Amino acid sequence: MSQDTKVKTTESSPPAPSKTRKSLPVLDPSGDYYYLWLNTMVFPVMYNLIILVCRTCFPDLQHGYLVAWLVLDYTSDLLYLLDIVVRFHTGFLEQGILVVDKGRISSRYVRTWSFLLDLASLMPTDVVYLRLGPHTPTLRLNRFLRAPRLFEAFDRTETRTAYPNAFRIAKLMLYIFVVIHWNSCLYFALSRYLGFGRDAWVYPDPARPGFERLRRQYLYSFYFSTLILTTVGDTPPPAREEEYLFMVGDFLLAVMGFATIMGGMSSVIYNMNTADAAFYPDHGLVKKYMKLQHVNRKLEQRVIDWYQHLQINKKITNEIAILQHLPERLRAEVAVSVHLSTLSQVQIFQNCEASLLEELVLKLQPQTYSPGEYVCRKGDIGREMYIVREGQLAVVADDGITQYAVLGAGLYFGEISIINIKGNMSGNRRTANIKSIGYSDLFCLSKEDLREVLSEYPQAQTIMEEKGREILLKMNKLDMNAEAAEIALQEATESRLQGLDQQLDDLQTKFARLLAELESSALKIAYRVERLEWQTREWPMPEDLAEADDEGEPGEGTSKDEEGRAMQEGPPGPE
């Protein structure tokens, strides 16, 4: 009995846990790891595009470094194979969500042309080496089919780099080099086919001193191809049909290449001009306007210096226009990361809600002031406050020379004027003259923008008014009696408004009752009119009465009785 129990226990015991295998993670096609792998694939693809053609057309290059080429060939094949593995582990977006199911990723990849091209680029054509020998690199030309990965890597780099225009120029120069390189290799191969030194057009006889070296062979071919493709001329005329065909093909390629270069450079220049126009205001129109209006030379020079300062120091004054295409939340995050630290330094905005500060950050307007330019003057109406981002400003007397204080980066002024604080003795007027000492970068926040934001945050508005009142008390510019009078006046106004609201509600109620009575009366009148119509419809016409008189008395009594009976009955009721 005990042995049976032991046997059953042994049979029913769970198997020992096996070691879990760690699978490869799924890559995000927009992530950094996938981008690094694309950059890695640039090297094997460029190796095959450049070196493979050169080895095919220059036999000395193939024979002299055979071992190195075999190592590089199979290293690139290994990277090609790993690239297929990466493709099977690269997710894709479906309805905006990254798909990480490897089964779905694999089934989607194998149904694309990319999978067929990747397989074709890895076909083991090297097996033919066993019959033709290892000095036939032409068998590996199917490796060119992996070129789309090179273009994908270039596109990702162009979107990620901080200098896209420079990268476009470098990419264009690389394409030009590859085309000239391929053409020089074909020229050397054609010269070998036709016979070296047979005429002036082909490559000279290697038996001549200096022309037998591999470096000289490549450089001469590259130089000759450059002359043809750039249509510079100064090349020997062709003598045979093959040479004519080669020259015609090169001329057509040169025309297309010239158009491509001009289009690419025009696009780069246009993008650079567009970027400058987006970041910096167009000073050409302003200069033309000043010349047409005969503005004095000194003021014109100040305007030119201001524009020059913006471009030299990369100052941006239209951030809203630059970020307008971003989603609202993303635009807010960018603005917060750039300007929130500056806005949080303002005492009146400290301890406010984070959402309020985010709203205010989007309202900040960058402004740049030139040396000696007044930001505000005493007595001006205060419609905005300023935060010093960079530079120095002086609080000066009315003469513009005597300095009372200097404001540096992180300081602010004008915050009281944009908040309607009851009892403010200075009202909304500026109390000082502030002038820029050098070039100063400020952030401007208008009263309208602040009011628009605070309308959604009444509690924050109360807190800011309390802080502003404390600041005015320290400055001895808060009239307590005037404040109390304004508060009383505001309360009286509010009570009157409430009374008017109540009266308006009563009037609306009375008007609704009158409207209901009017509708009821209209229905009654309509029913009475309808009843009269039915009654008068049975009355005889005057002609009928005259005919009845002519016929005699007997008919008259009968008709009168019928009329009286019809009037008593009234109109027929609705069916």
Task: Please render the helix and strand layout as text.
Blueprint: H1 2-12, H2 32-57, H3 59-64, H4 66-88, E1 92-94, E2 97-99, H5 102-110, H6 113-121, H7 129-132, H8 147-160, H9 164-194, H10 214-229, H11 241-279, H12 283-292, H13 297-312, H14 319-322, H15 328-343, H16 354-361, E3 365-369, E4 374-376, E5 384-390, E6 393-396, E7 403-407, E8 412-413, E9 433-436, E10 440-446, H17 447-454, H18 458-474, H19 480-536, H20 542-551, H21 553-569
Antiparallel strand pairs: 1-2, 3-10, 4-9, 5-8, 5-10, 6-7, 6-9
Describe, in plain words, how this protein is organized in 3D:
The chain is α+β, with helices and mostly antiparallel strands and 575 residues long. Among the domains are: 24-160, no CATH class; 284-313, no CATH class; 324-478, Jelly Rolls (Sandwich), CATH 2.60.120. 61% of the residues lie in helices and 7% in strands. The protein is built from 21 helices and 10 strands. The strands form 3 sheets. It has a 4-stranded antiparallel sheet with strand order 3-10-5-8. The protein has a 4-stranded antiparallel sheet with strand order 4-9-6-7, with no helix packed on it. Strands 1-2 form a two-stranded antiparallel sheet. Strand 1 and strand 2 (97-99) form a beta hairpin. Helix 2 runs antiparallel to helix 4 (66-88) and helix 2 (32-57) crosses helix 8. The chain is extended and about 120 Å long. Residues 1-20, 554-560 and 571-575 have low confidence and may be disordered.
